[in-house]
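anyone else get weird line breaks when pasting these?? whatever heres mine. first is seq + tokens for prot A
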Amino acid sequence: MKGNKVVFPESITDDLHHCFKCGMCQQVCPTFKVTRQEYYAPRGRVQIVKHYLEGDLELTPTLEHILMSCMLCDACAALCPSGVRVDRLFRNMRVELDKYTTKKLGKKLVFAILRNGERLRKASRLARIGQKFLVDTLGTNSKMGNIPLARLPRITSESFRQKVPEKITPEGKRSGRVIYFTGCATDLIYDDVGHAVLRILGRLGMEIVIPRDQVCCSAPLFLSGAVKASLPNIFKNLDILDRVDADAIVVDCATCGAALKKGIPELLEDLGLDTERARRVAKKVKDVSQIVSERLDELPIQENLSGEPLAVTYHDPCHLVRGMGVAADPRKILSRISGIKLVEMEGSSECCGGGGYYQFDNVDISAGITSRKKRNIMATGAHIVATGCPGCRLTLRGNISEDENIEVLHTMQLLSRSLTNKRT
């Protein structure tokens, strides 16, 4: 099948002709750094898309693999001197691929689960049983992608949103009201992050609303090209989040934040749909580190009495540093925690190789990207890696062995640990 009849948004199609093939994108592309092949570089992929849209290329499994092997880390778009929106170009191309290619059974199943909140909770319970049986009973050495099953995070027995009140009022004077969009990972896997966020925002006097009926942000769906499948979740969340009585919409997941802040408004625009509500929501979306860093002086951070500070390095999630433009805030928080010495790693803003489902679909390329990130972490001598993305946390922890003794935590967990019990 050739691409003659493909219709992209005109502004995105124009970008195809703005690429001057300068090659600067190669400097930052994680897949090119691993493969050293031109067709795995952004400018190579841009030319493939251009020739496909002009009808010169057939849609083949090889073409699909090359285009789907992009990490969508947005590093190339951020650097491009010609302003080519490579991220949007490739996302639109994935919509085309989704129309005419057959998805693997595993991915189809994951997508079907993510489209329904109740289905997701039931699937997580089944997965938890399977996880306990395979790891605890059989002691299997099997892997998912590059990660041993024993190194995957444990699914919680009860979802975070079911364990906490839908509305949490501060003990003292209220300083504001926020909606907490927990995302799927905090709700079903990393509830430790959720509790840390609640503790910190509570100490800042925030009233916290946690809508129970929020659903997956749909980034895994629309970033894979399954745009139509993503729209019901998107519209449901917009219904829930578009409130005038909230000062901010707080996220602790970089992917959810980038989806709500940037991805969804752009998606609706590319589809020719009304973006007004999505842009209202986007204006209120903030990563929790942004809110906390602004009011860091109000938190009772305990002094270090143990002597030698603990070395901590920070990994910038792609969706946080480029999707939301957040880099300084987490570092400001870490630098203020007593007992911690922040050690910058080389290539801190480079992709970790996870990319959600990517690491299970593109095992070899993912392994190469992750090994590069791991070397940079190890070179710092850090005992803890802080990050603001559950996907990065899963990837990094899964690829760091027990004997390497490096903990991977959310920045809010480290901050929560450092707070005294004193009320301000």
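and prot B, same format (seq, then tokens)
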Amino acid sequence: MSKNQKNILLVTGISGAGTTTALKTLEDAGYMVIDNMPLRLVPALVQDSAALPNKLALGVDIRTHDIATHFTTALDSIKGILEIKAHVLFLHADDETLLRRFKETRRKHPLHDGRPVLEIVALEKQIVDPVRQVADTLLDTSHFKPADLRRYLLAQFSDDELSSDMAVFVMSFGFKHGLPKEADVVFDMRFLKNPHYNDELRPKTGLQDDVKAYIAEDENLNPTLDNITNLLRQQLPLFHKEGKAYLTIAIGCTGGHHRSVMMVEEIANRLKDLPFSIRTHHRDIENPAG
């Protein structure tokens, strides 16, 4: 990436999916953030690319009244300038989660007109579907706490990531808490020896040495690590060649506390010599074991 390269991140999605948290996080990460800017003004904004900050995040959602009519034009104007790298991040969540979030915050939906929330959400999805269709990253935040979303964004859109052509996000999760919908590649570790059945190890995690030693007693551990690492070493350059900017590798076990956590750390360590930004996250490590 040229030192003169500008990065514009368009943050959009469904109301209640976390765009406010995302913009605050990006601001903390050094982005200049402009929220709810009329899209018809974007072409003029980007004409003088030299005057733009290196990292600019534009918040675009249903409150931006010209989102349905001017989003494509705005995006094309950004992509038409060689010095600017554009990325569209679209946040969404399932209806049950959106309904719960609106109830908990007691915040009205931007399109509120007296109709039920889910009816309005359905209308919003219809309006912004053309935006979703052109998004570079679709992120389902249904299982994300605000802290999880913050960690994800900092890992994906930090300065280290911007200096790399592709960011690789290696995350652990528990199948009983749901499959990560943002995952591009998924590996299942539930066949490995399970520390959950050891009373002393159950409350611990795969970050601790005695848990690692217990799992390492399984004769299948090292062949599995070798096979996964070799596969990823072969495939990551191919994803990069196809223009993939962000790749999420999800490693799962039953609860997301032990086996998947250990495997994420081991795999990330084995891939750290590759020319990509390798980040780790343990989605369910703080969820109750049981």
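btw re prot B: Residues 6-162 form a domain with the Rossmann fold fold (CATH 3.40.50.300). The CA atoms of residues 198 and 248 lie 31 Å apart.
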